[in-house]
Write a structure and sequence with these properties.
Layout: E1 3-5, E2 17-20, H1 24-35, E3 40-43, E4 55-58, E5 61-64, E6 70-71, H2 75-80, H3 83-86, E7 88-90, E8 94-99, E9 102-107, H4 127-142, H5 145-150, H6 156-163, H7 167-182, H8 191-203, E10 206-209, H9 215-221, E11 229-231, E12 235-238, E13 242-245, E14 250-252, E15 255-258, H10 262-268, E16 277-287, E17 297-300, E18 307-310, H11 311-314, E19 324-331, H12 338-350, E20 358-370, E21 383-385, E22 388-390, H13 400-416, H14 418-429
Parallel strand pairs: 1-11, 2-3, 2-15, 3-11, 8-17, 15-22
Antiparallel strand pairs: 4-5, 6-10, 7-10, 8-9, 12-13, 13-14, 16-19, 16-20, 17-18, 18-19, 21-22
């Protein structure tokens, strides 16, 4: 695959479809349309593919733009990606929660049978909570996904209360963990989405690629035909004839698919309804010694931070030899005290002196996830107007699966509408 930067490729302006945005949704859409025989041009405003799923290299560190994990159980992931090529390294299947009564370690007994004794009633959970949590997990794993999708929707908090989990388990364990998944602490997120996430975590493995999370979109981009992808090509406007670039050039196409984040999509497609979004900030620190010699997620019941982990324990490629890289995420743009306040809280979470830790980077990710309040449709049409489509996780679910599935749906709907799109373009040109 070759890309164009700040230039015009041969044959420019002759695409059947222009896809705006080379995140996961745009990549999936462009790939599917290309395989169906469409001439596609994929325009990306930045200098690389991936959207929010990118990795920077700095001073020997791999820095994902916001803490992210990769779930191997998603159907779109299985269908599109060569997992062996990503050189995935797994997290410990579980978590450590720092609670008012001490540290609680929970791991999946089906994958860590040697640690099953930790789940004996009274150690981490009561017998009742253990039974309820096991029943909830078993139901989500075994029920056909179609039945999960068709359930009536309510909030995640309402579901956890209805199944009978104690307030201690919810507040000390599940709320801090799920706040990091949903990027909100009230657990107002759609229960439909919660059940699918819970199912995917129980059925899959949470991992990181050896080259960072950006390796995922990079692998997809390598499958694009030469000349399809154009970087550093921000789109200023969707026009009747196609799209107008920020540099004043126009790219003609009968069909345009907007595969950007929700706010950009709303700007390019006036009248498009988009959900509220969630913001998260991730801090990276370098430590001379690992504060926790295990690739496990640590959550904070006070919610001062969402979660923290030693990324170099997951995969050593994230840090230079002899150094540990610690990732910590907080809701919004960060705490009032900024990085020093985060580092102070990390001292309590890890039980170590963090004054010598070096700040490496901080990323605030605006619109990191859509706010998926119930009732939340797990998928919705990508059709916006004749010849105009919109896809992305804000049109499905805030996940890798959601973004890829929405891009795939956009391609299917474009192909299904080809006669309609062609007719609309002919009328626009006066043919």
């Amino acid at each position: 695959m070759t890309t164009q930067q700040n230039g015009t490729r041969p044959g420019a302006g002759t695409a059947d479809t222009v896809v705006v945005g080379a995140g996961l949704a745009g990549l999936a859409c462009a790939l599917d349309l290309g395989r169906a025989g469409q001439r596609v041009e994929l325009l990306e405003a930045s200098d690389g593919v991936g959207g929010r799923m990118r990795t920077d290299r700095r001073d020997g560190f791999l820095l994902d733009r916001g803490f992210q994990v990769f779930n191997t159980s998603y159907p779109q992931v299985k269908a599109r990606l060569d997992l062996r090529d990503l050189r995935l390294r797994p997290f410990t299947p579980g978590l450590v929660a720092v609670t008012p009564t001490g540290r609680v370690r929970l791991t999946d007994p089906t994958r860590r049978p040697a640690e099953a004794a930790n789940l004996l009633p009274g150690r981490a959970l009561s017998a009742r909570d253990l039974a309820v949590l096991a029943g909830l997990t078993l139901g989500d794993v075994l029920l056909p996904v179609g039945r999960l999708r068709r359930r009536g929707d309510t909030s995640t908090a309402a579901v956890l209360d209805r199944v009978g989990l104690s307030s201690d388990v919810v507040d000390d364990l599940l709320r801090p963990f799920l706040a990091g998944v949903f990027l909100e602490e009230e657990l107002e997120t759609s229960a439909r989405f919660f059940h699918l996430v819970w199912r995917s975590m129980a059925r899959g493995t949470l991992c990181l690629p050896a080259d960072g999370i950006g390796a995922v979109p990079a692998q997809l981009a390598r499958s694009l035909p030469d000349g399809v992808l154009r970087l550093d090509a921000p789109v200023a406007e969707i026009t009747e004839a196609g799209v107008l670039l920020a540099d004043g050039r126009e790219r003609a196409a009968a069909t345009v698919v907007v595969a950007t984040d929700a706010l950009t999509a709303a700007r390019l497609l006036p009248g498009l309804a988009v959900p509220d979004t969630r913001t998260v900030t991730t801090y990276y620190h370098a430590a001379e010694a690992s504060p926790l010699p295990e690739p496990i997620l640590v959550v904070d019941s006070t919610l001062a931070v969402l979660n923290t982990c030693v990324l170099s324990e997951v995969t050593p490629t994230y840090a230079p030899a002899g150094t540990s890289l610690v990732s910590t995420s907080v809701l919004g743009a960060g705490p009032p005290g900024g990085e020093p306040a985060v580092r102070e809280r990390l001292a309590a979470l890890y039980g170590t002196d963090t004054r010598g830790w070096e700040p490496v980077a901080a990323y605030t990710v605006d619109a990191a996830l859509p706010a998926m309040r119930p009732p939340w449709p797990l998928s919705r049409t990508t059709r916006f107007a004749a010849g105009r489509y919109v896809c992305g996780d804000h049109r499905a679910t805030g996940s890798v699966q959601g973004a890829l599935a929405s891009g795939s749906r956009a391609a299917r709907e474009v192909l299904a509408d080809l006669p309609v799109a062609a007719g609309a373009a002919s009328r626009t040109r006066g043919e």
